[in-house]
Input
Amino acid sequence: MTCLIIAAHLESRIREIVNPDEFSFVVCADSSYVQAFKEDVFPDLIIGDFDHNSSSLPPDRNIETILLPVKKDDTDTHFCVKEAIKRGFDDITIIGGTGGRLDHTIANIQSLVYACRNGTKARMMDKNNIITVTDRDCTVDKKKKYLSVFSIGGKAVVSIEGCKYSQSNIELTDSFPIGVSNEISSDTALISVSKGTIILVQSDD
Output
């Protein structure tokens, strides 16, 4: 089952990134519901601490709402990811999670790692980027110009097929970005992961 999580930092309209109608379940993190309502996107669940403005609490629209404490370990978006996994969703897309504060972008990438470690497919998207984390073999459809591969959490060993720079058993470390700015040369690329966990980033200029 698919779940869309709309995080609070939206730099474009929701429907310019995804079609919310294609998801089984939609979650708004914190004040992202404001933009969602403007686009007639009505979530199934709203989660947040609304710490920037207590008057921004969502109006009663018979939408399930989880009010989080301001002092907590999870970010609002990370709590959304955990709640989606708890509810049985095995395919998660996050939008509104990049740009703005860099620390939140990094935190959201860590949430992708959390999903991966819990056996859930997850990606984060904006108009120019698609970010995924995986520890297993995968195919990547050509949706952007560039494909970059990075290790996370230590050394990774990957093989890449269907790209401008295809190679077997590439050793990636988290201190040298050798996997940046590759290009998919066919309809899809095949990424084989024999060791470790990787971040895949598809990007346009």
About this structure: The mean pLDDT is 92.
